[in-house]
Amino acid sequence: MAAGCAPPEKATGDSTAAKATSAADFGGMAGLIEAAQAEGQLNVIALPPNWANWGAIIEAFSQTYGIEVNSLQPDASSQEEINAARQQRGKSSAPDVFDLGQSVALTNVAMFAPYKVATFDEIPAQLKHPDGAWVNDYGGYMSVGYDATSLPEVTGIDDLLRPEFKGKVALNGDPTQAGAAFSGVLMAALSQGGSADDIAPGVEFFRKLNEAGNFLPVDPTPATIASGQTPVVIDWNYLNGIESERIPGWTVFVPNDAAVAGFYYQAINADAPHPAAARLWQEFLFSDEGQNLFARGGVRPVRADAMIHATTFDPAAFDRLPPIDGMVVIPTHEQTEAAAKYLAENWATAIG
């Protein structure tokens, strides 16, 4: 991952580039590349190198275009991305682009710059804003990762309430702020008879988990998993899948009766200090190369169907995507807003 020295304080964004809504506004891709290389830098935020293959994606972008990538706060939550953009507004240290969970993305659309990548028409309508203010880039399924060498097999979410899991079950983040944790609570809700319209049973499940002493209030990381500090992790399948390649016995369970899918939202900061580089980054992410790099990280790229049809996909990478046998729930914006409100009012009490 490229990481440069701190950039100068004054933002350097070009006003023409900041208003561009497609590569055509630069005279085509060659013009966009030239403008981005003139800026020379790109600020990304909240992109852990082991998450969705971001490390390899950043490196490939930097090497392809000779643009230095400054990776800011790689472990930040979606809300912290927005906070950073507000706090750093007008400075060259502000994030140029965002990668956000649904609830945070859809409540901050006014902060995004509309832009349509070259492959925009190949992205399903429900997975993009009509004018390109945001576009889903990759998705996955909520899962339970666990150390099968020391714990019994997990065949359902209720298994996590068993005594063998005392002090062992961690959730990736705070569900009132982080998309992964939010989806983890929704998965629990579905397993308990709830739905995308009723997340209360999920909060109740975590209350029971906490009362049983099984809930572990530690944000899991590769280090905590490797050390055994977090032997059970509720997180996206692609993150747990990476650990299964790294740690003997680490097993990933995706419940077919409570399958929750989620897509992340890619957007350009309307106040990006490097607006041309931000737009070139988008073009790269949604190109065949960028989408195949996502698949190599175990996530489903948003253009997967179009790439399969056009045979531009990497078969070895796509073979890593998990098979799901059952109904998959993807909450709507309205369902997410209602669930987020319920979580804001009830989560702290449930696990307090």
UniProtKB/TrEMBL annotation:
Assigned keywords, A-Z: Signal
Pfam families: SBP_bac_6
Gene3D superfamilies: Periplasmic binding protein-like II
Keyword hit for Signal: yes
Protein name: Extracellular solute-binding protein
